[in-house]
Amino acid sequence: MPVVSSPSEAAFVVGIEVLSGIVLLPALQCRAFNALSDKISDFRIKQFNCLVNKMKKLSGFVAALIGVLLVGVSLAQTTTNTGLAFESPWVRASAPGQKNGAGYVQIQNKGSQTDRLISAATAGVGRVELHTIINENGVAKMRQVQGIEVPAGGAVTLTPGGFHIMFMGLNAPFAAGESVPVTLQFEKAGEVKVNFEIKPTTYNPMGAGHGSAHKH
Ligand SMILES: [Cu+2]
């Protein structure tokens, strides 16, 4: 490579060398090939065919390169879409005879767009709803909500006394030590599968004195 003095000059030289490598070199090779068979009358046709073949190989390479770039772009897209993280997903083990359960988790949004949890689903449960707790004249009541917002660059915490995923009509009780596979549906991120760990009935993430104010 020639000695160069500035970065732009270097880029120019590299550009020229790459160009000559992918366009001029095949042309020169074709000329050399044809020079060996100069007795052949259809010299120009042969040279043309030789060049076409070289270009076909080159376009195959370029197509492969574009493919690799597209895969890279789609991976980057996937990373953005799943900019959600799930901290300590859990449900409480069912008390004897209990037919409902509630799921809690902290959802972090590392992306730059606000997202919304719009539904949840799991097998073996009659119905799954998104709920919050409201205080009505000093009485805590559950209310269904259409979505739970996850602010961009922030988090929302589903916790006893607040937002929760309501599992209604369990076919079998939640048994401590097992887990509940839940498919969460987000407005932007789409479907995300999260395993909710089943904690003992005595489990309280907030410590003593801050137990759930409501019963399901
Ligand atoms: Cu509820």
Please write the CATH class name of the largest domain: Mainly Beta
Provide the number of structural domains. Answer: 2
Report the sheet with the most strands, covering strand number, pairing sense and barrel closure.
Answer: 10 strands, mixed
DSSP E strands, number: 10
Rg, alpha carbons: 32 Å
**What's the order of the H and E elements?**
HHEEEEEEEEEE
What does this structure look like?
The chain is of the alpha+beta class and 216 residues long. It has 2 domains: 7-81; 84-199, Immunoglobulin-like, CATH 2.60.40. It is built from 2 helices and 10 strands, in the order H-H-E-E-E-E-E-E-E-E-E-E. The chain has helices spanning 7-36, 43-81, and strands at 84-92, 100-109, 115-121, 125-136, 139-144, 148-150, 155-158, 164-170, 179-186, 190-199. Strands 1, 2, 3, 4, 5, 6, 7, 8, 9 and 10 form a 10-stranded mixed sheet that branches. The longest helix is centred in the first third of the chain and has 39 residues, at 43-81. The radius of gyration is 32 Å and the shape is elongated. The relative contact order is 0.15. Residues 1-7, 12-26, 65-80 and 208-213 have low confidence and may be disordered. It binds copper (II) ion. Residues 102, 131, 142, 164, 166, 216 line the site of copper (II) ion. Copper (II) ion (CU) binds at residues 102, 131, 142, 164, 166, 216.
